[in-house]
Design a protein that fits this description.
It comes from Amycolatopsis bullii. By secondary structure, this protein is mainly α. It is built from twelve helices and no strands. The longest helix has about 35 residues. The radius of gyration is 19 Å and the shape is globular. The protein starts with a helix and ends with a helix.
Length: about 260
């Protein structure tokens, strides 16, 4: 707990968590407000899923926040003092990952429920009641997904160490790479089915009916993952754990 407290002081003494946190919430709330306001003109009532249509952009902000929590310390040199105080390195890196994941969880839950509430206020006649497990998973599931995404961001930060490189990877991968994989002849679709963000999309949407709205109101299935929603989240968690472990191993070997 002392390590977590120390990491909290270091993290929140800079502007990064506040700027990225604000962007995360706005990225979730603003599209929900637009969807609710434009629903009347399109004669298409907003769905619970449409209130969370900004989750992908918000996740990018969480990934960048997590990476900067690591790379900013390497840039400033404060990480060396931390490692002198904790020579084994692993406990302090786990504390950092836990802190950033906890903050990301709070951002995800606050942003997702605020987006849903804003949509309910702006479209009071729409059926936005959370009355099924799928509805609750679409909204409340954002927090756990963002927490695991933050662990991935910390892992990438430990592996890359340089801010520009880490940010480039974490912006390009969710926005482009997984979609580009589908263009690989013959094997592209098979590979895409098992990619981590495709799997976690299955958790947040679950089915074609639950997907309606995440792609602007269409009921297209946005994830072709063969996993069920619960297993999809577990799969993403395993990916995050492996990425963090790889980052810790690299730090211990390089700094040994």
């Amino acid at each position: 707990m002392h390590l977590v407290a120390s990491e909290r002081i270091k993290l929140f003494s800079i502007a990064t968590p506040w700027v990225c946190g604000t962007f995360t919430v706005v990225a979730l709330v603003f599209p929900a407000a637009i969807a609710a306001l434009s629903a009347g003109e399109a004669h298409l009532p907003p769905t619970v899923a449409s209130t969370q249509s900004g989750y992908q952009l918000a996740m990018v902000a969480v990934l960048v926040l997590a990476a900067l929590a690591v790379t900013s310390e390497y840039h400033s040199g404060t990480i060396h003092g931390t490692f002198q105080a904790v020579p084994s390195r692993t406990p302090v890196l786990l504390a950092k990952a836990a802190l950033v994941a906890g903050y990301a969880f709070l951002l995800g839950e606050a942003g997702a429920f605020t987006a849903w509430l804003v949509a309910r206020v702006l479209a009071p006649d729409a059926d936005l009641v959370l009355e099924s497990a799928a509805d609750w998973r679409i909204v409340a599931g954002t927090g756990p997904v963002f927490a695991l995404a933050a662990v991935c961001g910390v892992g990438v930060g430990l592996l890359v160490r340089y801010t520009a490189g880490a940010v480039a990877v974490l912006v390009a991968y969710p926005l482009m790479v997984e979609n580009l994989v589908q263009l690989i002849p013959r094997a592209g679709q098979a590979i895409h089915r098992w990619l981590p963000l495709n799997a976690v999309t299955k958790f947040l949407s679950g089915s074609g009916e639950a997907n309606a709205g995440r792609d602007g109101g269409n009921a297209a299935v946005l994830s072709d993952s063969p996993l069920g929603p619960g297993w999809a989240l577990a799969y993403f968690g395993l990916f995050a754990a492996v990425l963090l472990a790889a980052g810790i191993v690299r730090v211990k070997r390089r700094d040994a």
